[in-house]
Design brief:
Elements (H helix, E strand, L loop, with lengths): L11 H9 L4 E5 L3 H9 L4 E4 L3 H4 L11 H14 L4 E5 L9 H15 L3 E3 L7 H9 L4 E6 L5 H4 L9 H17 L3 E5 L3 H10 L4 E4 L7 E4 L1 H4 L17 H18 L10
Helix pairs in contact: 2-4, 4-5, 5-6, 8-9
């Protein structure tokens, strides 16, 4: 298998240049050193330490419970693993909505303590003042529009967003505002493909899609989902690039059997 690997460390400027060059951007989530190392070695452009860790790592139903300190803890391991990829950390629910001052304080704390390259926030015009202050303070920001999981209780679920004209127009408006404010990239989640392509052409910064069609500048998936580790989740936009759940269970089952029948460890595996 051929993969695209670069020796130099990815930066926000290089991510922007990839859009200018017409080069697609590949992003995956990461939550720990071991898997992030493999993802990085394979040549991924960006690793997102998503607040989806609340679901994948912690077993919560929603992303809302995870804290700033928990995100920092997870991001530290990913940063140690990333020799090439740009590492982005999600700012969790409640860390940037209360006030601009608290938003900047939490963003700076995340960058300083985790060592990541940028933070990601959900929302448009409503959080624009906080985003502007973060960027002025020297914090690179990735935006996130469309389905914003931190607003699940407000939306009432995880359905397709921006189907109606009014919401679609607001999304385009928000994307332009985020771009003008200086966001180095924007994630579009679960919106019509035609709208995502329109937004991608309307802004200068790279647009990364998840469930937003092929017209974006790049794509992101949750690592555990695309590896087939998360068996209970199969939305339309998800492609399984492996089926590791079965392999893991088979390996664990074999381990159990060899322990039970006494064939592990063997003489060769003993000191």
């Amino acid at each position: 298998m051929s993969v695209h690997v670069q020796n130099s460390r990815m930066t926000t400027a290089k991510i922007r240049q990839m859009k200018a060059n017409g080069e697609k951007i590949a992003m995956l989530t990461g939550y720990d050193y071991t898997l992030a190392s493999l993802t990085d070695e394979a040549g991924i452009d960006m690793i997102l330490v998503g607040d989806s860790a609340s679901n994948v790592v912690c077993g919560n139903q929603y992303t809302l419970p995870i804290t700033v300190d928990e995100m920092i803890f997870l991001t530290k391991g990913v940063v140690r693993a990333a020799q090439h990829a740009l590492v982005v950390c999600d700012m969790p629910f409640g860390s940037y909505q209360i006030s601009e001052e608290e938003a900047v304080r939490n963003a700076v704390k995340i960058l300083k303590e985790s060592g990541c390259d940028a933070v990601k926030l959900e929302g448009g015009e409503e959080i624009l003042p906080a985003i502007r202050h973060m960027i002025q303070a020297g914090v690179p920001v990735m935006g996130h529009l469309g389905l914003t999981p931190q607003s699940v209780n407000q939306f009432g679920g995880y359905g397709l967003r921006a189907k109606e004209d009014a919401e679609a127009e607001k999304l385009i408006h928000d994307a332009r505002l985020l771009d003008q404010a200086g966001c180095f990239s924007i994630v579009l989640e679960k919106i019509p493909a035609a709208l995502a392509e329109k937004v991608t052409k309307a802004v200068s910064c790279p647009v990364i899609g998840i469930g937003a069609g092929a017209g974006c500048d790049g794509q992101v998936l949750v690592l555990h989902d695309m590896l087939g580790l998360n068996q209970g989740f199969k939305p339309k936009f998800l492609r399984h690039f492996a089926s590791l759940a079965g392999e893991v269970k088979n390996a664990v089952g074999e381990y159990i059997n060899t322990v039970k029948d006494g064939s592990f460890p063997s003489a060769e595996e003993s000191y």
